[in-house]
User: Fold these one by one.
Assistant:
Number 1:
Amino acid sequence: MTYFQELAEALPRIMNGVWVTLGLTLGGAALAMIIAVTLGLMARQPNTLIRGIARAIIEFFRGTSLVVQLLWLYFILPGLGINLNVIFVGVMALGLNYGAYSAEVVRGSINSVQSGQWEASTALSMSRVHRMRRIIFPQAWALMIPSLTNLLIHMLKGSAVVSFITIYDLTFRVDQLRLDTGTWFAYGLVGLGSYFIIAYILTLIMNMLEVRAKHRLGRGESLREMLSLKPARPSAETGVLP
């Protein structure tokens, strides 16, 4: 039986692994974003206690291994009477670990918003919440997307560690194919190709979010214009193509 025949027979299992990996990545990304925004905002608070709690959480999860965190959640929590679904454990480990990294991206991007924007919103007597929601965060969001894209792709690849707790993800299924074929064909073709395709699709989606975020700020073409086959319109200021 040829390698491609083996691949055809294993394709349903491979696709199942792809969906598991996607679920872990997207679930982990959603949790990481919630954690990142929360900790990123806390790390900017003038209150020393709140800022200190945020820094402690960020440094702990950045400074310890994702594998150790995963095993701790899977093996230690049940001993404390907390039993979690194995998929949720994977999502939680990814979200906590990458959420800590992303918190620094959020904090740094907010700090990078021009000081004039802060001063203008203060002059308009906006509350701190209103100022952050309507003025500062939309601008910071456009700045943080490229870094968050890198972390999302890193999370996709890092999700392979869930095989340590018997989650049958893409890497686990590819390894099964390697055992069936008795060669490294599975990793060389199926593994690399699958991860690359998923990563490329996620990158395209994040790039579209970046275009949309910048357009909402008046800093570039809209997503529709970017995807259109029509030639770009002349700039309103210069009368020439951008």
Number 2:
Amino acid sequence: MSMREINFDGLVGPTHNYSGLAHGNVASMSHEGLVANPREAALQGLEKIKSLMDSGYAQGVLPPQQRPDLGALRELGFAGSDARVLARAADEAPQLLRAVCSASSMWTANAATVTPSVDAPDGRVHFTPANLQSSFHRYLEPTTTGRVLASIFADEACFAHHPALPATPAFSDEGAANHTRLAGEHGEPGVHLYVYGRQAFGGDGIAPRRYPARQTLEASQAVARQHGLGDAQTVFAQQHPEAIDAGVFHNDVIAVGNGPVLLYHERAFRDEQGTLDALRERMASPLIPVRVPVEAVSLDDAVASYLFNSQLLTNPDGTMTLVVPGECQEREAVWRCLQDHLLAGHNPISEVVVKDVKQSMRNGGGPACLRLRVALSEAERAAISGRVLLDDALHGELVAWVERHYRDRLAPADLADPALASETLTALDELTGILRLGSVYPFQLG
């Protein structure tokens, strides 16, 4: 069975803005109120995936959410025409207006957790949309996310879709941002590392003090059960509370893995040695841990540069390429670590590629946040519906679509503009035609 990993990147939405909505995400909070450039953000994302496609890596795209979410505002008591709803929200509850205009679905690492068919008892690829209940602006996403995934992965013989977990604090689920699959190669049975910040029931009470822990152990266990994974296939590890308090709101800000390689910071896991031992015990192939000590890269530098929020990609010869944000070059300690510790070390990482995703980075999302990893067999790739696998023609159409519909300037005050809402619906309606997805948005369903 020829298994290949496809990185599905989320297209940046037309309402990309800097509202500072994510508590605990230092970059998001520190750039609150700045003027954003949605067009540049979307084009930066498209340039990244086009360059990776040109280098031989399989790429797909996922559409953004419908924003502003006027339905959510109406559920919260704002009535009248669209213009009236937007005006009242801007006047009476500007924080809610900012939330329903968030373009955070671009970070598809949060969209869902995926288990490949080689690991599932029924031989199908399993999907669970993340409930994202820890943040109101992201809690709005799972219904449309589930609809989009079901439209693309529609063949029930190949794909299984599960409901998002109950949207309660006990089952707070942030998707694949806290999930890493490790195996010798994509077609080999893998071990699933789920990283959580807190336990809802029981536990010893050790937790971060400054910022909230978003993922619960109970949520991770529930997703593993949905997908039919057993004890021999799973490791549940607690994220280090110090990392969360430094701004590591998800595990993918402090660790990244692919194949047998786990690149991680010394402060990634509360029980570093126990986590490594559990992975080694379960993996069929030897684990290759690549540890970055705090003396080389501080937690502050890790968060500011998003070194670990990089894409770790496997090459045909077994070597690996690390795709890092440009901010890694701006931190001397980080850049030195990349050159002297990673590239010069005894590990498969042989190349570092720098990408400019500044518009995303200012909102707290690096290259790894922008993609959902899906390992598929040849038959499963053939069963994908729609036109979401990137090629030159699709890339060209998406660039032209962005240039037609996206603004090059968007301040928080612009979110109340009724014209923006209208522009967005027009753009999304056209996008579903380009991607051949059918009706996936609320406004298309009536």
Number 3:
Amino acid sequence: MIKAAIFDFDGLILDTETAWFDAYREVLHNQFQFDLPLEEFVKCVGSDDTVLFSYLQKELDYQLNTGSIRNEARKLHSQYVSDAKAREGVVDYLRDAKNEGLTVSLATSSTTKWATTHLTNLNLLSYFDFLVTQDMVKRVKPAPDIFLKTLEKLDLEAHEAVVFEDSLNGLVAAQEVKLPTVIIPNPVTAALPFENYHLKLNSMTDMSLHEILKSLNK
């Protein structure tokens, strides 16, 4: 029986990932006339930017001022998401989760400050019973630490929760813990080779949360 719903944040609740891609692409084009391929950027989605900067270091072949690149991208990103709304169906899923009596947790590779700021701006923070962020673990996704910490806080076994994810790194982390996972990609992650998930939807409007729970509770 499913007792909890666990939601990723970036790219799933708010499409910050497309905004990050656009921001980094613009900064790298302006500073280096470099065209950032989506297939390289997407490797860091759901995790941190370590893989991205390792790739850029090799491609650009000289010492990068990573702090400067991050700061410029962050400024652009803030502009891009300042008026962004939650993805379609998010509010319905959160409301329905509470109505179904589920405990609701966030499990994100982002910081607590980042998640709480955006959830507050979206008027969604009150739906969450727990927030588990990068500040609480040693390793972010695709390592399983965030989901292990989430299950610890929920005091549940993996089969008693369902995870909603948009990234391959998130799916890999959930699979390590054997958490049933519903994949809902965003435009940046849509082409990733997702495998061994419970369901994959184009949008949360494709299937109600009640229908998902019914499929898991058979």
Number 4:
Amino acid sequence: MHQDFASNLRLLCSYYKSIAEVCRRLDINRPQFNRYLSGRYKPSAHTLLRFCDFFGVEEHEILMPHEQFERLIKVRPRPVVVNESAHQESEHLARLQRAGISSLEKYLGYYFEYYESMAYPGRILRTLICIERQDDRVYYQRTERLREHPGDNVFHGVYQGIVNYLTDRIFMLDYETLTGNEMTQTILFPSFKNRVSRLSGLKLGVSGSGERMPCCTRVVYEYLGRTVDKQRALSLCGLYEQNSAEIDSSIKAAISNTMDENDRHFRALYI
């Protein structure tokens, strides 16, 4: 009989929603697992090692007398349990990433992003985008540099998110990391040329003003390269007037939020 081991195993399982969830995540047969919980059987060395890795304990610890093991567990941080819905969400995101990660390779690097400011209507906002690959995921960071009037303090907003490539469209979703009060989604046309120069699409978010109005605006990404002088690039970011000579006229035309009289939806412009 292995009652101490069985009691220790039941204690570890109590941190999870159910025994069934533990069995699914361990990929172990439920009747077999019940034998270990009953104390009638002790798992093989290989199976015991799997249990220890899963629950985050050492082999000699899980075999301790139950009262001693219980005291040990109580003074440790509680195991971080990922619930089933979060696990399913991670699987969905991983599947999306795998679907188009190879297609994103040529888009890695730095960009200037241009669009009509949601918080400051009538002015153009230029931000710095960095798209990079980490293992089997593609992430990006968007950095805003805002100064409403000359002499004002500079405010930096930092957004972090994920990039997916699905059937000839680039999907980007991020959140504002400093205050946590905003998410934006951007959908871009890919480049069908060998060399990426500009990408266009639509951005959906909320204005940074007090009204937090949901807004949609045309957006252009201007490719800068795999490496840049980030301080120099950030110094060029900020708010620009519509007549500013520092913004190319073709970019101004591409981010203009005009609609034809026959349009029934606000549409992106392919450039």
